[in-house]
Write a structure and sequence with these properties.
Helices cover about 20% and strands about 20% of the residues. β13, α4 and β14 form a beta-alpha-beta unit.
């Protein structure tokens, strides 16, 4: 079964909490704090597997969680780090944030392994918080929370050449003749319900990959039929071969077909319509020109060769003209950029923080009266590099609390003058 789209929920591991304990040994009085740090939570990692060509493994399971870090222990024991979760995917997968549609990662080109969600850092044990004025710290840092996202996985095949055309014009027949692919072939519309890849190996030329894109219909770019689901598979191709039924065996006009297909490509992605094109006028073995009518090959040449689009009369059944078509395509590929087309990543760390609400959280401590706890990745980062013992550092920190909205959150939570604010092991008194 071919599956090229999947929606799943991924979650990294939570960091283990720091431990609160005190050294208690015979003959050792007031041994001091010895609570260890929590372990780091596992990351969620996507990794390209060359042996995969479908997302069927993500069609049944929908939730994938990395392991949480273990809590720290006494005697300064560090909690065990959580195991990373490695999700194997085919080359060409786009990872999108499901609600916004923003691109998190494109598993193409040199990007073979991508950390999409990072596990939370483990919290520090109370052994880190002993000072000359606080020799018995009864608190430890909690582990950072896990990150969670619903993501859309979409496969965009990586091929040099894309075969496009209306249903039943002979794309699958041509692909089976020129490559090692074995698509199902019959005379029914939409027999091809999945894209097929084949490798073309010509004497004296380099191999190239060709993709048969399932038959398009009018309105495909707006979601009609199956076209919209498969149009994305042509986005990475460097050259397009239009296949038309030159004999009009089903009453279709080959010239009109070219224009209609190009319109659908342009509506879906205008850049695709600007790529080099070749027209393969198929079924020439079935052409019958009535007296007074113009030869269909001549019509195609008059219409499109002035636009620098070559026309190749072929028969996918007999093999006539196919070699000439393929050698021309290979020559064109030799002069086109070989760089894999990669989607631009536009899902930022800031998007992640807003999504996870990690910018800052303010909660009232249920165990300690008149005490509020502030947590979040930004506040923790600020505390690591700000010298609060200096007047300048303290002023900088005060400005950050105001601009980041933390002071407003504290006031909304009901803080009063003289109340205590705890931030990752540091304790402050609140004054307006």
């Amino acid at each position: 079964m071919f599956v090229d789209k999947a929606k799943i929920i991924i979650k990294s591991g939570k960091g283990g909490d720091g431990h609160v304990s005190f050294r208690r040994e015979k003959y050792v009085a007031a041994g001091g704090p010895d609570g260890g740090d929590g372990g780091k939570g596992g990351d969620v990692i996507f990794q390209v597997d060359k042996g995969l060509n479908t997302l069927i493994g993500y069609n049944h399971s929908k939730k994938f969680f990395a392991q949480n870090g273990e809590q720290g222990g006494k005697h300064k024991c560090h909690g065990k780090d959580g195991a990373d979760l490695i999700l194997k995917v085919p080359e060409g997968i786009i990872i999108l944030e499901s609600q916004s549609g923003k691109v998190i990662a494109d598993m193409s080109g040199n990007n073979r392994r991508q950390i999409v969600l990072k596990g939370g850092h483990g919290g520090k044990g109370n052994m880190h918080y002993a000072t000359s004025t606080m020799q018995v710290p009864k608190y430890a840092q909690p582990g950072q929370p896990a990150q969670e996202l619903e993501v859309q996985l979409e496969l965009k095949m990586i091929a040099d050449v894309g075969l496009v055309g209306f249903p039943n014009v002979g794309k699958s027949t041509l692909l089976s003749r020129v490559s090692n692919a074995e698509p199902k072939i019959s005379n029914y519309h939409f027999t091809t319900l999945k894209p097929n890849l084949g490798v073309v190996d010509l004497d004296g030329c380099r191999k190239f990959v060709i993709a048969d894109i399932p038959g398009l219909i009018e309105g495909a770019s707006n979601g009609a039929g199956l076209g919209y689901d498969f149009l994305r598979h042509i986005e990475r191709t460097r050259l397009i071969i239009h296949i038309v039924d030159a004999a009009s065996t089903e009453g279709r006009d080959p010239v009109e077909d070219i224009y209609k297909i190009n319109q659908e490509l342009e509506k879906y992605n205008p850049e695709i319509a600007t790529r080099p094109q070749v027209i393969a006028a198929n079924k020439i073995d079935s052409i019958y020109v009535k007296e007074g009518e113009k030869d269909p090959i001549q019509r195609l040449q008059e219409e499109f060769e002035s636009e620098n689009i070559r026309i190749f009369p072929i028969s996918a059944v007999t093999g006539h003209g196919i070699k000439e078509l393929l050698y021309y395509v290979q020559n064109q590929l030799n002069h086109l950029p070989k760089k894999t087309i990669v989607c631009e990543v536009n899902f930022s760390q800031e998007d992640m923080l807003h999504k996870q609400n990690l910018l800052s959280t303010v909660i009232r401590d249920a165990k300690v009266p008149n005490t509020f706890v502030v947590e979040g990745s930004e506040i923790e980062k600020i505390l690591t590099y700000t010298n609060l013992d200096s007047e300048k550092g303290l002023a900088f920190f005060q400005k950050f609390l105001s601009e980041s909205g933390i002071l407003q959150k504290l006031e909304k939570a009901g803080i009063q003058e003289g109340d205590t604010v705890r931030m990752y092991g540091r304790v402050f008194e609140y004054y307006k």
